[in-house]
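quick one, 153 residues, struct below
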Amino acid sequence: MKFQLIYRIINFTAPSKPPNISQIYYTSSTSIRVHWEPIPQEYVHGRLLGYQVEYRRIEAGLLNTWKTITVGAKDHAATITGLKKYGAYVFQVGAFTRKGGGTLSKAYMIRTDEDGWYLNYLLIDFVFFFFFAFQPARLYCVILFLFCMYFEF
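---
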């Protein structure tokens, strides 16, 4: 009994179970927030030092390197800023002890926001309608422009 207790205290390893990402969403056109559930203590195997959020941008034809944000053991969320507008990113979260990092969570892909492009189109619609729709010769051009803009021709 005494030997088993000493063995368990000395034999620390990295966490054997990854945290589960519970929420991931964009907070702006250049930032994403990630929330995760903490690892149950029986899977930590020592003193939990913190979590690492790993992410990389996905681009056609390019292989981007993984970037890492480190937060404390009591944190269960992180906001990643400085991302590209309307960029696609892959996120994973892992925990670490003094023996190293454990396995990473399931990967999630998300895009940042588009930076209000829809509101810009509405403003353009209003301006064109107000200034040009009342002139019969230009009404056809306005309708054609709006059709092309909405259906992305």
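The first helix runs from residue 2 to 10.
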